[in-house]
Every structure is written in structure tokens, then in C-alpha cells.
Design brief:
CATH architecture of the largest domain: 3-Layer(aba) Sandwich
Distance between the termini: 50 Å
Largest sheet: 6 strands, antiparallel
Bound molecules: adenosine-5'-diphosphate, magnesium ion
Structural class: alpha+beta
Helix content: 25-40%
CATH class of the largest domain: Alpha Beta
Oligomer: single chain
CATH superfamily of the largest domain: Glutathione synthase, substrate-binding domain superfamily, eukaryotic
CATH topology of the largest domain: Rossmann fold
Length: 364
């Protein structure tokens, strides 16, 4: 796509910036910024409703006040951003196309976006896998994307972020076809790559934020949220990670959970990667390991309640929509709270490591 030098006038990003509370400094440090397929805008909204309802019913017993659980409208706001992008084309018969996995497990999270798109904005959504797009899709000479004879003006990716989503050339062709069309891609390929760990690490280098922002106070605020992030060509850091692997997380350029390396495996992997040399090291970044304070919580999974020491991760949803130089939306859109047993390194809910949770605001 860089060779084609195609201009994308409309950019749509539905993000989630994830944070953990560092117990040493008591500050929220960013885990990562997701720019593709951010999950749970649908389910987190109703889990918050569930918690509020329970507190309304049993709050006196628990000494809790439902008003202290902030409202969460992530799914409505994401649907609104998708609808606004759709509006930019002004083609009434066009649809939003959601790209999903063949055996989709997040369907009931995605459902809420489809529902609000239809009920609040009158927009129809179709669901397609990458291989279905390859079989049924074409781009007209004017750039219009047509899938199964329907005009598609917004492509919303809830798949396509893991190599497993591309088992054959067909899926890559589908991705290229959509990219070549004039439809809004949420995200486009370049916007997708901005969410990689490598870019996060490059943004944390001195003088890089200054290229994108002018306001010094804003730059300082952003930087306060950055944990230590290093490229593996920094030999000093690699050496100290081999000596103290527990203080670091080794991350490949992957999404979807389950790919990070922790503890003694960090040492082993770094020694192996150094031996391999060449590009092997540049496929990873090193990150300061964040240690949030653990607290006792009751977690419910599959209808069974467990008490355990837990840590939580806060995700802040955000939407961004721009047409040429005009920024149409740049806003926060609710939150995702995930809580997991403190002994687990990974954080995925669908992956089975964490449960959905809510925020409870206190005066302290
Ligand atoms: P992915 O793109 O696979 O979701 P993340 O960077 O979000 O990758 O890492 C997955 C999980 O690993 C996070 O949800 C978090 O629970 C844990 N994790 C990631 N980075 C750190 C870190 N620096 N310190 C402690 N835990 C981390
Ligand atoms: Mg993550």
C-alpha cells in the first residue's frame, strides 16, 4: 500500500488504551494502545449495568453506593462513531461490514454494536469472514467496495489481527482488496500498525512525542503514563533483563493475548535471540514489568464463585474520526475493567485469564 501511495481521506479509529496501577508510584502506567479489534465495548457496558443493579438491591448490606459506579456507554459511542463514518459517504443503501473470525467467540459482544447501529442510526451491518470477502467482494472502477452485491462504505475489523486469521493467500487478498477500495477501514493497514508494540516503544523515546504534539503540559502528562520501553538493540538493557528477568516483559509484535514472555523465560529467550542474531531481536521489545497491588475479590466464571487475590487492568475506550483535515470525533468512550487472579501473567477475558469488572470511585 505504501508503493501504491493511496490517499485515505477518512480515518476511523476505535481504540482502547490499557493501564495498570503501579504499586510503587501509585500511578496508572500504560500497558498498550489497541487500534484494531478492541473487544468488550458491548459486554462491559452491561456488566456495569449488572453491578449497579446489584448494588441498588444489596448496597445497604455491602455498604456500597451505585452512584459511585461510573456509567459506561462504550457500545453506544462506538456505534455512533461507526455511523458517523458511514454518514460521510451519504449512500443510504450502503452497509457497515464487520470482519469476523470463522468460529467467532465474541459474537455477543459485537451484537450490541450491530443493535445500536440499526436502532439508533438506521444503519445495517453485515458480518463476513476474510475468506467470504475474497469470494464475494470486488472493487468497482470508482473504488466502491461491493460484497455480495451490497455497497460497503465502512469496514470494521473484529478479526485480522493475528496470523491465524490468514491461513491462506485468500485472506491476504481480501485484506488487500478492502485496502484498495474507498471504504473507510477501521483500521486501515497503517492505522493497524500504529498499534504495534514497536510503535509504542518508539513513541516513548526522547523527543518523539514532540513531533506530534505542541503543548508541553500535554506531552508531560502523556509521558507520565509510559512505563520503561526499550528496543532490543539497547545492549545495556538486554544485559540487565538477562540478569533480572522478573523486572521485564518481553513482547513480540502480536495482539490478542498469550504471546508475552515473563520471568525466567525472558532470560532464556534473550540468550537464544542474541545467538540467532540478525532480525530475531528486532521482532521484540522489552517493557518494564508493572506490579499492581493485589486485593481480595470474588470472581464468577461459569456460574461458580471463587475468592482470590486479584489485580485489575483499566482500559479507556476512545474514538477518532477525521475526513481530510476536519476532525469529526476525538473523544473518550467509556471504559473496560478487567480483573484477574494476581498469579496469572496474561490478562485476556476470552482467553480465560480474567473476568469483566466495573470501576468503583472512592474519595481517597
Ligand atoms: P496483547 O496485545 O496480547 O493484549 P498486552 O501488551 O496487552 O498484549 O499484554 C497482555 C497482558 O499481559 C496484559 O493484559 C497484562 O495483563 C499483561 N502485561 C502486559 N504488559 C505488562 C507489563 N509491562 N507488566 C505487567 N503485566 C503486563
Ligand atoms: Mg492487550
Amino acid at each position: 500500500m505504501m508503493d501504491a501511495n493511496k490517499k485515505e481521506n477518512i480515518r476511523l479509529g476505535l481504540h482502547r488504551s490499557d493501564y495498570m496501577l503501579d504499586s510503587e508510584t501509585n500511578s496508572l502506567l500504560q500497558i498498550e494502545l489497541n487500534t484494531i479489534s478492541v473487544s468488550f465495548p458491548g459486554l462491559c457496558s452491561i456488566v456495569t449495568e449488572l453491578h449497579r443493579t446489584l448494588i441498588n438491591q444489596y448496597g445497604n448490606l455491602l455498604c456500597l453506593d451505585a452512584k459511585r459506579v461510573p456509567g459506561n456507554e462504550a457500545s453506544r459511542q462506538f456505534a455512533k462513531a461507526l455511523a458517523k463514518a458511514w454518514d460521510e459517504f451519504n449512500v443510504d443503501s450502503a452497509v457497515v461490514m464487520m470482519i469476523v473470525q470463522p468460529e467467532e467467540r465474541n459474537m455477543y459482544d459485537q451484537y450490541w454494536l450491530v443493535k445500536y447501529l440499526r436502532e439508533s442510526h438506521g444503519v445495517t451491518t453485515i458480518r463476513k469472514t476474510l475468506s467470504e470477502v475474497e469470494a464475494e467482494g470486488r472493487v468497482l472502477p470508482d473504488g466502491t467496495l461491493v460484497v455480495n452485491d451490497r455497497k460497503v462504505t465502512v469496514v470494521y475489523f473484529r478479526a485480522g489481527y493475528t496470523p491465524n486469521d490468514y491461513p491462506s493467500e485468500a485472506e491476504w487478498s481480501a485484506r488487500l482488496l478492502m485496502e484498495q477500495s474507498s471504504a473507510v477501514k477501521c483500521p486501515s493497514i497503517s492505522y493497524h500498525l500504529v498499534g504495534t508494540k514497536k510503535i509504542q516503544q518508539e513513541l516513548a523515546k526522547p523527543n518523539v512525542l514532540e513531533r506530534f504534539l505542541e503543548n508541553k503540559e500535554e506531552i508531560a502528562k502523556l509521558r507520565q503514563c509510559f512505563a520503561g520501553l526499550w528496543s532490543l538493540d539497547d545492549e545495556e538493557v538486554v544485559k540487565s533483563a538477562i540478569e533480572n528477568p522478573d523486572l521485564f516483559v518481553l513482547k513480540p509484535q502480536r495482539e490478542g493475548g498469550g504471546n508475552n514472555i515473563y520471568g525466567l523465560d525472558v532470560r532464556e529467550a534473550l540468550i537464544r535471540l542474541k545467538k540467532e542474531g540478525g532480525d530475531a531481536l528486532s521482532a521484540y521489545i522489552l517493557m518494564q514489568r508493572i506490579f499492581p497491588k493485589a486485593s481480595l475479590a470474588s470472581l464468577v466464571r461459569g456460574g461458580v464463585c471463587h475468592e482470590a487475590l486479584t489485580v485489575s487492568e483499566l482500559g479507556i475506550y476512545g474514538a477518532y474520526l477525521r475526513n481530510k483535515d476536519k476532525v469529526i470525533i476525538n473523544d473518550k468512550c467509556g471504559y473496560l475493567m478487567r480483573t484477574k487472579v494476581s498469579s496469572s501473567d496474561e490478562g485476556g477475558v476470552a482467553a480465560g485469564f480474567a473476568v469483566l469488572d466495573s470501576l468503583y470511585l472512592t474519595d481517597k
